[in-house]
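Quick entry between incubations.
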Amino acid sequence: MEEAERKPLSGLAKAERLVDRLWAPLVSLTEVVGVHLQLLGRAGYWLAKPPFRVAVFLESAEFIGVQSLIIVAMVALFVGMVFALQLVSSLRQFGAESFVGATLGLSLTRELAPVFTAIVVAARAGAGMATELGSMRISEQIDALSTMAVNPIQYLVTPRVLAAIIMLPLLAMLFNCVGLAGGYGVAVWYEGVDRGVFLENARWIVDSRDVLQGLIKATVFGCALSTISCCQGFYASGGAKGVGQATTRAVVGSFVTILVLDYFLTDVILIVQSK
Amino acid sequence: MSDEKREGAQIQIRDLHKSFGEHKVLRGVDLDIERGKINIIIGGSGQGKSVLMKHLMGLLKPDRGQILVDGEDIVPLDDYALNRVRRKFGMLFQYAALFDSLTVGENVAYPLVEHTKMPKVEVEKRVIEQLASLGLKNVEKKFPAELSGGMRKRVGLARALILKPEILLYDEPTTGLDPVATKNVDDMIRDISKDTGVTSVVISHDMASTFRLADRVSMLYEGKIVVSGTAKEFLRTDNETVRNFVEVSGAVEMPARGAQ
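Done. Structure below.
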């Protein structure tokens, strides 16, 4: 009905509308990325200004790092174990089960450790940070900080992002160790792969550059997930429902960003390392 | 006259505009906040009272206009410079905005710990004194969630007062309180004003409180100050919107139109 009442659009106007419609998501995506990068920039700026919030930093490091130890170790153990199981069953078809240790080592250090660690931390600590900052926003505690002449970004965002950047590679290293141990257990004790071959191949193929690649990724993911979680919480609005939505966006946004970043980072790192 | 400096406007707002997207909230606010007086700004919900108050401390940046605090325009200042100006202010939020991860004592001590190098013992003493002056005893170790709404507000007030600000902002201080608690909060605002000589700015839509307390009343309507003056002057207005707003509340009687 409504369509019929409108004047018919000229060809040019139609084309304009189509371009607008296609363009809009790109514009809003740019906006969202911009807001996050701006917050990250301001967090960095306030890092350089006194005072440094040692207490909040340590608290965040404890929350992001120490409290994630058990869950990261558990995930690592089972990821290592199931990977070993799959590798043995597929490599055995080519008679290449001697490469289980090497393949597992490469996958863990380069991909599985940083990505899984980041996803576990995003789900646990990222959601926690978004909820905490979101509640502080809607109960005006963030405004209250400003009224007391305390910069809320310096007080709330900078220490959290810094803690995540430091803690993520450490957790990824733990993931490497526990994952490899789990894989070793399944491959050697359960599937009967020769112990010496497993370890020797792993040592021969996996080198420090692979580990470094994973740790660089973990650092970047830590920065991304903490920025996203803090940003969603910091700018939350709309009461309890708004905090819920902020938390959802923080977790989903972190997951997608981690995986997208992973691809491009890998590409860049492989090019750099092959030179 | 040595008192001359203590007289007159401490905050001057000139032609203040603020929009959120398409929505124009403030459309040219002009207002003087008198030094040492209780200045009350009334207005209906959604008329931009809280937005106006947030501008006073630089929590929001206007699209256009000036805010002069003791003659200094705070609009162009950056966060770092604003923090200096903000130390003149204390603010009581509508729901107190206490940090729920800290105890009551830590909440009240927070501004002292942030901005002074006072020894810990001294801080604790000051906190207990401040709380006691507002009628709160033995609550330092409790968490905000364990207190009633009225008590939380008093803790919020203690936190706002601990650095002895020159200007105190109250965001709807009596919202959500029963009549007795409302009266208590009103008395507190008056006592603090009298005892400390602080400049008070109160946002309210509680007419009874307003006319019990106010030295000056201003009404914000559709993004502008429509009437501003002493309580008596205010009640004598011919402005239809204002008369309506006050009469509907039933809290005060308005003199007949045009009465002197």
